[in-house]
Amino acid sequence: MTLFIISLNQLVEASSGTLKAKQRIVFQQINVNKILIQWYQKAKNRIRKYLANVRDKSILFNAIEEIKKSPEKNERSKNDKRVSIEAIQKVMEMRFDQILVNGYEVLQPDDKSIEFEDIRINITPDLVFRYHEDGLIKLGAIKFHISKTKPFDLQQSKMISNLLKQYLEQKVIKKGEVVDERLCWAYDVFAERLLHADKVMDITKDEVQKLCLELKEIYKAL
Predict the structure, then answer these.
(1) Rounded to 10 degrees, what is the CA torsion of 131, 111, 157, 207?
(2) Distance (Å, whole) CA 185 – CA 194
(3) Under the phi-then-psi rule, with left for phi > 0, alpha for psi from -120 to 50, and beta for the rest, what region is 124?
(4) CB neighbour list of residue 103: distance below 8 Å, 6 or more residues apart
């Protein structure tokens, strides 16, 4: 039985959080704020669209022009606009068109979650793709993170890339395909870090297992 659902980003935040921070995160999962402000939505949508077709840079150029024209109603919207433009510029500098060079097929899996200790983790990759290389049919995925003030550190990014790999192995892979850890990427936009998964993920699995057990006990105590 699933106790509650948590996003991958919030799980990663909890991994380095204090007890109070973890309690707050669990509380937010079971008392969902339906009017919570979502930051950088247009930028995120356009970056996802670009990752699905990295040969078309006009997606990002047009996004910047659209965002520049958006109204600045208050300080929040002014900041959203500024950071959104900076984030898209960072993505341009990463040059994904030179990383995914041989073409790839975008996949749309129905199930985008995995479970640990009765907690469902919404992995929700920003891109899942099939890639032909060296006579093999490989699977890969990308999940990006936009936060100028709180970028994920190396350990947090590694947890994301490894859980992307586990998700592909559990929920997406088909007969005749392989999951390539070098194609499972955590991309922190403002840290300018693109980090692939480990070949052996035992440390991450143990960390997530332990963390979910802790969050499970917090849930029971609320």
Answers:
(1) -120
(2) 6
(3) left
(4) 132
What tokens were used for 1?
């039985």
Residue 40 lies inside a defined structural domain of this protein: no
Q: For 69-113, how does the pLDDT look when each residue is reduced to its tens digit (9 = 90+)?
A: 998 889 988 999 999 999 999 999 999 999 987 789 999 999 999
Note whether 159 and 207 are within 8 A (CB).
yes
Give the pairing of strands 136-145 and 113-116: unpaired
CA 80, CA 40: separation in Å to the nearest integer?
6
Residue 35 C-alpha from the chain's centroid: 22
Spatial separation of the C-alpha atoms in residues 163 and 138, rounded to whole Å = 17
| Total count of domains within the chain | 1
Block residue for tokens 């999962």: 29
Residue 199 counted as domain residue: yes
Cα–Cα distance list, 115 to 105, 122, 172, 173, 207 (Å):
27, 9, 15, 17, 14
Print the domain residue range for 204.
Answer: 4-17+102-212
Query: Closest Cα to residue 145, out of 96, 186, 196?
Result: 186
Is pTM beyond 0.85? Reply is: yes
Residue 82 lies in a domain: no
Secondary structure percentages of the chain, helix, strand, coil, to 5: 45, 20, 30
Instruction: With H, G, I as helix, E, B as strand and everything else as coil, classify residue 95.
Output: coil
